[in-house]
Amino acid sequence: MKIPEILTGILIILFVNGETTAMFPMVLMNVTELISWGNAISNVAVSNKEKKTIHISIQTFSGIFEETEALWNKFNDYYDKLSQKYYVRSKQEIYEDHDSKFLKNDKSTLNDYTLSVDRFYNDAYNLIKLGGQYDKIQFMNFQSSEFFDKRSLSITLEKIYQLIIPPNQLIRQGFIQLFIMNAKQNVQFECDKYISAQQYMFFFYGSLIITEIKGLIILTFAHSILQNLRGHTMVSPYNSKLALKEFEERVMDYHYHMNEAMASLPTVIYRCEAHSPVRGKDFIEFVNYRRAILLSSSIILPPHIKYNGKYHIKKVTTCDEINSSSINQPHLKGLQISNCKTLGSGANVGICHAKPNSSRKYQWFKVWSQIYGRNEECSTSIQTGSGDLDTINNHFCLCYATDNNLHRFNNSILRISMASQKSDIHNNMFVVGVKFVVYEGGIHLQIQQSKFIRGELNSNATVWKKLDDFAQDSKRKLLYSTLSDFLGQLYLDDVMLPPKYLVTGVRFLSRSTSPAGYYLQVHGTPYDLQTGKLNPEDSMWFIGGDWKYSKRLDYERDRIEIKILNHDDPVRCNRYNYDQTTNKFIQFQHSSVIKDAGQSTIPYIDAQPVEIYPPFPLSGIGLFYREKADCGGYIAPRIFAMDITQ
């Protein structure tokens, strides 16, 4: 194997190659390839056996050092991009946990040892860069330094290894064990970190391998210099054969333990709850869909009593009579009114109407001294017996209304998009992120897509696909479904694809038969590992459950209902819990009358984008409920990165 081939392999390890990011880390997962690289590097010293000048050794290694230095800089840049979101925070947490428990006599940390290897590398690289100005005496000083004669670098590499994989793991836990424990015990571990725990472990594995390769390059270079200075007799207590043997042993052990660890780590990525959430930016509500309203018992019903050939008008005298009746007043037409009950007379009612264009009808209302909603200063004006409460002698009725008229209010959001959105599969693009957005009075799940180029991922091609791509469809009306009393629940599932399939699209569908509701479908396309191409001909849609049966609507299975009756406005709560379970459903309904005047449709929809950075293909998408006792909660998407171990 030639040196350029070695360097190309290292580039694949780091996922960094020019401006692209390698798609599949196949080479890194092949320990045989790693060992062959080590042998090729070590053989450079052997090939210089008959070359008696320092200059030739410098020339031989100059290209290796330059390429490795450029590679290392790219690697550091890569981690710099991750640092604010995942790498530094996770690394620091685990390092501190590890160091506080297990570093007793040795005060150096894993990070300290890694930096030490970098310093050794930089020293050697400086000799390479300035080699033409050095004479034999200076190189003699270099080779006889503590660095070589006392095996400082070899010892450092071994200490890194022992911190990662301790000799007796029953007594002392290493980095891998602590990381897995942290990831599994802390359910919030992956939140807002943009890469999965499995990916992080893989990146860390890559950094270890590069550190090992750097160490081997340095030691091989030193061995070559010693050969030039001392001839064929090796006086140094350390040589390249021993360095190669230790490299092979550590790399094989790293590969085994890391592969085992990655197989046990989650691939899920999701967002934390937004701090001080903003409507429209961080969350979406089905506005005007289901809420509490105040009505008077004097409301006139449609004429429905026929006597002597004429229709006669009947007035409602109690709130209970409104329950099953249709209302024929212009501003109430089309509302489904239910569950009315008497609260008091109009004279005892005070109403604080919400501001125009608000998502609420009332800020709060009160009956006698009982406040319904937030007990705060009215931002408009308090009215008594207003609106439908037209006389002080009529009963005051609290009812619940379901609205499916999108045009009743300008700000209504009452629909779920049934339109499919697919990546540009024929242009080798796949889904790398999703987010909920509002479009034409409906809620859509929008996709972010990225592109394959020669089997590699081009991060510059990562874009959110426009929603109006489907707007000109001749069957446009069929692309929406309006929420109703009958069709108002959502199934919460994780839709996972079979091996070698990547996510290439999403859509919602509805069931009109029991149990009626909306469910998520995910479009999957197989990927050819050899050609680096998607295969559109074998694409298909999948639903939640076992992917082997994903073409069948298997929703008759038992599901757990998430009950949120009389829960508060989700914005008023924080510190939500992450629900990892699936196979559930939730009914959209009004919020608590006591706490929120029944003015919100809960749960809310989390609108924060969920994406992988740097972009990476997905093997699944799911919906989960962010919950807290007595709070309406949020429905949020989560994505599953492709399983590297597969």
Which key phrases capture this entry?
DUF4803; alpha+beta; 646 residues; 12 helices; disordered N terminus; 34 strands; seven-stranded mixed beta sheet; eight-stranded mixed beta sheet
Q: What's the N-to-C terminus distance?
A: 28 Å
Low-confidence segments:
1-27, 82-91, 386-392, 547-552
User: What's the total count of β strands?
Assistant: 34
Mean pLDDT over the full residue set: 75
The helix count comes to 12
Estimated share of beta-strand residues:
25-35%
| Radius of gyration from CA coordinates | 33 Å
- Which descriptor suits the 3D outline? elongated
* Fraction in helix: 25-40%
Structural class: alpha+beta
Largest sheet: number of strands, sense, barrel closure: 8 strands, mixed
- Give the number of domains: 3
Describe the structure.
InterPro entries: DUF4803. The protein has 646 residues and is α+β, with helices and mostly antiparallel strands. It folds into 3 domains: 3-266, no CATH class; 290-402, no CATH class; 413-641, no CATH class. It has 12 helices and 34 strands. Strand 22 and strand 23 (517-528) form a beta hairpin. The two termini are 28 Å apart. The model is unreliable at 1-27, 82-91, 386-392 and 547-552 (pLDDT under 50).
Short description:
Helices cover 30% and strands 26% of the residues. With 646 residues, the protein is α+β, with helices and mostly antiparallel strands.
Give the secondary structure arrangement, pairings included.
Layout lengths: L2 H11 L2 E2 L2 E3 L8 H17 L6 H30 L3 H16 L7 H20 L6 H8 L2 H4 L2 H13 L10 H11 L11 H34 L9 H25 L3 E2 L13 E2 L5 E7 L8 E3 L2 E3 L23 E10 L3 E5 L8 E6 L2 E4 L8 E3 L10 E8 L12 E3 L3 E2 L6 E11 L2 E12 L2 E9 L15 E3 L6 E4 L1 E3 L4 E11 L5 E12 L4 E2 L5 E3 L17 E3 L14 E2 L5 E4 L1 E2 L2 H4 L4 E2 L1 E3 L3 E2 L6 E10 L6 E8 L5
Parallel strand pairs: 14-17, 26-28, 31-34
Antiparallel strand pairs: 1-2, 2-18, 3-34, 4-31, 5-13, 6-7, 8-13, 9-10, 9-12, 10-11, 14-19, 15-22, 16-17, 16-32, 17-18, 20-28, 21-33, 22-23, 23-24, 23-25, 27-33, 29-30, 33-34
Helix pairs in contact: 1-3, 2-10, 2-11, 3-5, 3-10, 4-9, 5-8, 5-10, 6-10, 10-11
InterPro entries: DUF4803
Pfam families: DUF4803 (PF16061)
